[in-house]
Amino acid sequence: MCGPRNLPRASRMLQLFPGAVVAPVELAEAKGMVCIRTASASDVEDLSVYFAGLSTSSRNKRFMGARADLAVVAAECVAKADRPGHFTLLAEFRQEGQRNIIGETHYAYDAAARHGEFAISVADAFQRLGLGLQMMTAMETRAIDLGHEMIAGETARTNAEMRGLAKKAGFRDTGLGDWQSVHLAKHLSR
Ligand SMILES: CC(C)(COP(=O)(O)OP(=O)(O)OC[C@H]1O[C@@H](n2cnc3c(N)ncnc32)[C@H](O)[C@@H]1OP(=O)(O)O)[C@@H](O)C(=O)NCCC(=O)NCCS
């Protein structure tokens, strides 16, 4: 790897990965780098392929039900990124000149409810390596930069992974869920 040697490591890494929203991290387990960056229109096809590659279980959890129209979903995630208060972050795995999407989080601000809502997924082979938490942190940082004060999400009561991730990220159960789903929220502060 090359880069100006007098810059701090994080700054050098950001130079090597333009568009990254946080300093890229090395994934020692998989011998590659992970870059978290904002999605753009050119990502629709790769995002659709990523959604299709999720296991049925992960995909159903991500969308809280079955979705067949994955190209449409991917296009919506990216198209809405043009609106103020909406964005999609992608975790991209870079290894030997190849780039693959291995995670995504979509965020949308609800002006009436005065909070942002999110959904997230990590590719099955990369789960439980800390990526979910990293993407949540990057998403929260972006939401704070947008001036948002609260973030909320809903997940199935049976989704232990998401409930565990949300708890670790500092979310609390608002009690607004029902017998099937849990509503989680967090106040954002700098
Ligand atoms: C939920 C999800 C995004 C978590 O991503 P991840 O990269 O595996 O999460 P992390 O590795 O950052 O884990 C952070 C914490 O979440 C919790 N967690 C993650 N997976 C868990 C599991 N299978 N069971 C219980 N807790 C779990 C743990 O507290 C973990 O911290 P720890 O590893 O120190 O114990 C991932 O499991 C996923 O994509 N699931 C399918 C889609 C989905 O359910 N999306 C949520 C609905 S929007």
Describe this structure in words.
The protein has one domain: Gcn5-related N-acetyltransferase (GNAT) (Aminopeptidase), CATH 3.40.630. It has helices spanning 9-16, 44-53, 56-63, 70-79, 131-145, 160-168, and strands at 25-27, 32-38, 86-95, 98-110, 115-122, 150-156, 172-173, 181-187. An eight-stranded mixed beta sheet has the order 1-2-3-4-5-6-8-7, with helices on both faces. The chain has 190 residues and is α+β, with helices and mostly antiparallel strands. It is globular and about 45 Å long. Helix 2 crosses helix 4 (70-79). The protein binds coenzyme A. Residues 58, 61-62, 119-122, 127-133, 155, 159-162, 164-165, 168 line the site of coenzyme A.
Features:
190 residues, Aminopeptidase, 30% strand, binds coenzyme A, alpha+beta, GNAT_dom, 32% helix, globular, 8-stranded mixed sheet
